[in-house]
Structure formats: structure tokens, C-alpha cells
Amino acid sequence: MNEAETCRTLVRPKLETAGWEANGDTFYREQIGITAGRIVLPGGKPRRLKKKIPDFLLYFTRDVLLAVVEAKSNIRPAGDGLQQAKDYAQILGLYFAFATNGTKVIEYDYFTHTETERADFPTPTELWQRYLKGMSLAPGYTDALLVPDYHWPDKRPRYFQRVAIERALQAIVGKQQRRCLLTLATGTGKTTVAFQICWKLWSAYWNAKGEPKRRPRILFLADRNKLVDDPKDRDFAPFGDTRLRIQGKAEKGREMYFALYQSLAGADGVPGLYQQYARDYFDLIVIDECHRGSANDEGRWREILDYFEPAYQLGMTATPLREENKDSYLYFGNPLYTYSLKQGIEDGFLAPYRVHRIVTSFDAIGWRPNKGQKDKDKNPIPDRLFQTKDFERVISIEARNKAVAVHLTNFLKRNGRYDKTIVFCADQDHADIMRQELHNLNKDLAPAAVQVGSSYVARVTADEGERGAGFLDDFQDLEKDFPVILTTSQLLTTGVDAPTCRNVVLFRPVNSMTEFKQIIGRGTRCREDKGKLFFNILDYTGSATEKFADPDFDGQPPEVTAEEIDEYGQTVATETTTNPEPDEDFNVPAGILPEQTGGRVKLRVHGGPGWIDTEVTYDLDASGKQLRVGDMPRFTAEEVRDLFADADALRTQWANPEGRKAVLEELDQRAIDLRVLAAEVGEPDADPFDLLCHLAYKSPLLTRKQRADKLRASAAAFLAGFGPPARPVLEALIDKYVEHGIGEFELPDALKVPPLSAFGPPGEIVARFSGPSQLLAAVDALQEKLYAG
């Protein structure tokens, strides 16, 4: 039997005999993808790699997953699938992994780290009791865990969300741990996780004092209205009338409270609103985006957390531990669970990105005023070289802003003028300048936007107030085309769920890795139904390419060939370049500012030439570890050389069917599509082995026909050794390889389709070779000779 037949005829009955039902209270689910399949961009076109799909998942209840089962063909040893099962178990946060060939069962228990061979599967009750014993948690944990998830019609918690929920319940209820932290990358549903935790605790009547039949009072804290209002009105809507937003006065009598830090904290000499609540009033406090100052020893927000010290406190953040957010980790402790940006992209739940490094003439060589030159307000401009770190902080150059606006507009015209785009500017003033420049360049679309009461481009900063919030709501709305572009400075770095945002534009330096990851998170959400499977980062200041050199992104981008483009978009030169070194910390030179108004005054330079000097595009490679230039043949050659020292090493593994399968899977994981590669180099008839060796080691390139002719000449004696019943089958396999490629040697599938199916059903073909083992041995030997040196 093949694997599917083994599952159907042997494994399912074995599970059902043990009490796991196909449909019931304690049940199994078969062939359910736990990941979405990483999105890669071979040839610039997005596609998904294979999902991770365990053969069986064993559930004690609809939402309580206990174990994973990996099955292999009944002719293989039962233990062949054990490592795969263990890998799945670790990903899923499970303590039991099983492998089987339908006859024997191999169990791995992560509580005891014992591997056991057994004749059958444990019953659901047995496995549940072993789980509870191994966890050794307070009884209340079971009550909370067994509360069904709240199920929306269109979504269920993903595997990593389920792990995060269970880890939080284990810590809060099972271990009475009062300070907890979850680290989940932007776009992975922190609010969904927080809601399910609160829902289970609330439904189980858990509370900090252990009082019977009392639901908990929960406070959801954040520092921006959007981060409070959206969860209250959307995710937490199932709580109904128990919800309350605290504003202006200390209202009580509800169970699910929402508040801004700012509305609870006091001002100088004025006691905070939080003091009107008893210190033990809240049972649980959920702190969203807790890295932004909530745990700082000297912050007013910390006063709130200290005051409510008796409450359990759960911090939620998207940023791993770094210098600028270490206070959060010192306060809450190590994360109960971490799901990173890199893992989200690897699993296919987050969109990968292409990085476009664009350099204006001003950023490439700096800008120096003419002798005695004054700005638009007649202020003298100091005679010095101004560089990227100065622009829009000390000096605003009109021509630089125009050049970037023209380039961004042309980019949208090439790729999609309705592609949602966020432009991060230096400050609110700069955001308004870019809004105006982009509007004037795209005014042909203004009438369509006005017709629906909107704008093609809008500024969303603190100054806009409710009007800006309205633009943001429309930008996030999947059914609204306008506005297409938002210009901002700081306001949209976090808390903005914009699933269709395709372009993140950096037009200001970003010095903090925490802030950088938050900004990148504006584009990481996937919307396959809207055709959004990746997004672009357009970097006009070097911030992105510098940050990818950070250890979190595992490696500096390689040396690349760059293009220099004039103001008309024409290539004027090419050169080999590397990413610039990060700018030093910005300091305003003494005496540079002619005056100060409100702490910020910029010199404003009007007129003058400017253009895009350099533009380079990088792709994140399939390992998620580094950036590369989008050049498939060169990238493939580098990856093959990384895997194999020479052509002979590749040949040795390629000639063996199982070895070749491993090579193909590895190439697939590195986003190397052999068909796309063959088309890109103009060699669709090349044997993939020869194509790889040609690119990586400069070996001669053979077509499949040439390799087949070489086989027939060199292996004539081998083929002659088979009698008339068997030899025509091998000859047909060779012909099929010439026409369609190496995949035609796959057995038993090849036996079921023409031309081999013309020899009769699979059983008759096997009989021509006197048995299945002889057939397999003959086909394996044929492939080894096909790739002999």
C-alpha cells in the first residue's frame, strides 16, 4: 500500500478502535494543514510552497489538541515517521507524538522523553489523564482549557495562537504566575489571542481571589485610541453589555473594561483616575504594545501597573528583547511564547517583502549651498555639506521631495496605482509636503476620489484628528479604493491593521529596530482573496537595508549591481555597490538654526535640480536569513554550491531516487523552481541536473534527449539483460523521461498513466519483472545509470 491507502485501510480503524472518532467528542482530523505554505517569488511571481500537513491530529475536545500521528506505507518500518511526528509536536506545543505503518505504533512521550513500541493507540481518556499528570497544574486550569474557543464564522485560532493561549492559561491559572508576556509578530493576531484568553477565563468564572461563581473583571490597556476602540468594538464584541470604555470617570459594574493609559494616569499634582478603583478591583490586566513605556521604572504608566499589583498582568508585544525595550522584559519576565516575524513568513501566514533601495542625488553625494545662499524665508544657510541625517530635520530641500514623489508615482504607475501605500515621513510638516507633491502628480485620479468623498492621497497625523481617523478607516476598508496613499510620521507605526497595504515607504531614517519592525508590520498581512501575497519596502534613506544587517535578520546583503537613473528615468550608468554604513547618531551642529519656534525650525530650500541616483531591488531569500538581488540563475548557483562541494557530490545524491527527492525539496524550500529557472535561462529541454551543474560548476549543458541517448549507448548491456516482457517497460520510461522529465520515474504513479498503462494494470506490469522488488530495483538502477559520470 502507498501512504494514503495505509492511512485509509489500517490507521483509521486502529484509531477508531481506541476511541478516536472521525466525528465526535473525542476525535481525529486527517490531513489538516497547520501552516499556509511559505510564499516565494521565483521569477517575480508569488507562489506558495508546501504546507506542513500532519497525517492525523488527535483532539480530546473540539479545541483541545493532544497528539500528532505520522503514518508511512505498510511496507516501511513504523519508526520512519517518528522524527517528522516529533517535529510537528514541537511546532504545535504537544507532548505526545506517534508514528505508525498501520501495524506497529511508536510513541514518543515528551514528559518522560521515552520512546515506546506498542500495538495500538492509547484511548482519549488515557492520553488526557497522562497529559494532566504530566502538566501538574492547578485544577482550575482544566476548567479554563476545556472552555470552547469562541468561534467566529470565518476564522479559527491558528496553531501558534492556540499555543500562545494555552501557555497563558497554564501560567495564569495553572501556576498562578502574576506577570506574563507573549511576544507575537505584527500581523499574527495578538488581539485575537488576548480575546480568547479573556473569553476562556471569563467563561470559566476564574478570578484572582478564587471566589466561587464570580466572573473576572478584566482591564484592557493601550496607549492609542485605535488600539482601544478596535478591540472593544470588534474582537471583544462577544462580551456584549459587559464591555465599558473608561473615559473621564471611574465607572464600575461591568466585567470587560477598556482604557487608555493617558485617561487613567494623573498629571502633575493631579491624582490619576485609576486611584478611584480599589487596588484589587481588577483580576486581570492585558497590556497591549507593552514595549512602549508601560514597564519603564519612572513612567506614569508604570504607576498604574504598580497600583494594581494584586491583579494578574499579561503583556503583549510584537518586538523581541532589545536594549530599548528591556524594561518590559525585566518587568514581565521571559515570554511564555514567541512567534517571530521570520517564523510567520516561513509558515506563510505573513507576507514576504521585496526591498527597493532608492538613492536620490542629494543622499548619494550630499548637498552644499552656494556661497551666501538663503532659504525661502531669507535665512542664511550655513556653508556645510548636508547629508541624509540632516534632511527634514535641519533642512528641507524641495527638489529632493519632488524627486521622491515622482519616483514613487512612477513606481505605482508600473505596479498598480490603486495599491495601498503608507509613506513614513520625518515629521508632520514633511508629511504634508509629501501629501501635496503626490497629490499634484496624481491629480488625474482626484475626481474619482472626490466623487466618493475621499482623496487619492491624505495625511494622517496627530494634527488631523477625527478627519485623519476617517481617512485611516477608509484606507483599511477592503472594499474602498480611496485613499490610496497615506503620508504620516509616527502615528501609523503601530496598531494599524491594513491587510491590503502593498507598499511601505521609508522617507525618514529609522534608528530603532523596535520601531523598524513595527513599521514593516504595516505590510506583513496576507490577503490572498485580494491578490496580496507580498509587499514592497521602498527605502529612500537606507533605513531598511541597514536594519537587515541586524542579527535578527541574519546577515548583511551581498554586493550588488546598481543602476543610476536620471530625472527622466533613464539608466545613465551601472556600478557595483554595497549598502552604505548606518548613519551616525544625529546631532544638530552648533549655530545652524537661525531661530527656534516651538523647538523645530527647518531651513527651506526652493528650486534646484534633483534626481534618483541609484535604484536596487532585493528579495528576502527563502530561508528568511538575508537579502539577495532578484537574479534567479546567479542565486541558484550560489545555493547549489552551498549545498554541494562539486558536481560529483550533487550527482551522487541526484542519481538515487530518495536522495533526489531530498534535493528537490531543499531547492523548493529555497524558492528555486526548476521550471521557472529553465525558462529564465532559455533551456526548457535541459535535464534539471545538468542545468544545476551548468550554473553552479560550469559543466556542459545536456538536454534530456542527449542524456537519454547517452544512456542507451552506455547501458545497452544492462537493458539487454531484461527479457521481452520487461525491457519495453524500461524503454517506455526512458521515452517518457525525454518528453516530460525526471518526475516520470515515480512509482507506482507512472504505471497508471500512458504509455506504461498500455502494458496493463500495475499488477501485470509488476509480473513482467517477477515481483515488485525486482521492478523497483530495475528502475532505481536505470536512474543511476542515467546520471552516471
In short:
By secondary structure, the protein is α/β, with parallel strands linked by helices. The model is unreliable at about 555-600 (pLDDT under 50).
How is the topology of this model organized?
Elements (H helix, E strand, L loop, with lengths): L2 H15 L9 E4 L8 E2 L6 E2 L7 E6 L2 E8 L10 H11 L3 E5 L4 E5 L4 E5 L5 H12 L4 H6 L13 H16 L4 E6 L5 H14 L14 E5 L2 H11 L7 E3 L10 E5 H4 L19 E4 L12 H8 L4 E6 L8 H7 L4 E3 L1 H7 L5 E8 H5 L29 E3 H18 L4 E5 L3 H14 L4 H6 L5 E3 L5 H12 L8 E4 L12 E6 L6 H8 L14 E5 L3 H5 L12 E6 L5 E7 L25 E3 L6 E9 L6 E3 L2 H12 L3 H9 L1 H13 L4 H7 L7 H10 L6 H11 L1 H5 L6 H14 L21 H7 L3 H15 L3
Parallel strand pairs: 5-6, 9-14, 9-15, 10-12, 10-13, 11-12, 13-14, 16-22, 17-25, 18-20, 18-21, 19-20, 21-22
Antiparallel strand pairs: 1-4, 2-3, 4-5, 6-7, 7-8, 16-26, 23-24, 26-27
Helix pairs in contact: 5-6, 13-14, 19-23, 20-21, 20-23
What does this structure look like?
The structure is a single chain. By secondary structure, this protein is an alpha/beta fold. The chain has an 8-stranded mixed β-sheet with strand order 19-20-18-21-22-16-26-27. It has a 7-stranded parallel β-sheet with strand order 11-12-10-13-14-9-15, sandwiched between helices. The chain is built from 28 helices and 27 strands. The model is unreliable at 553-600 (pLDDT under 50). The protein is 36% helix and 17% strand. It starts with a helix and ends with a helix.
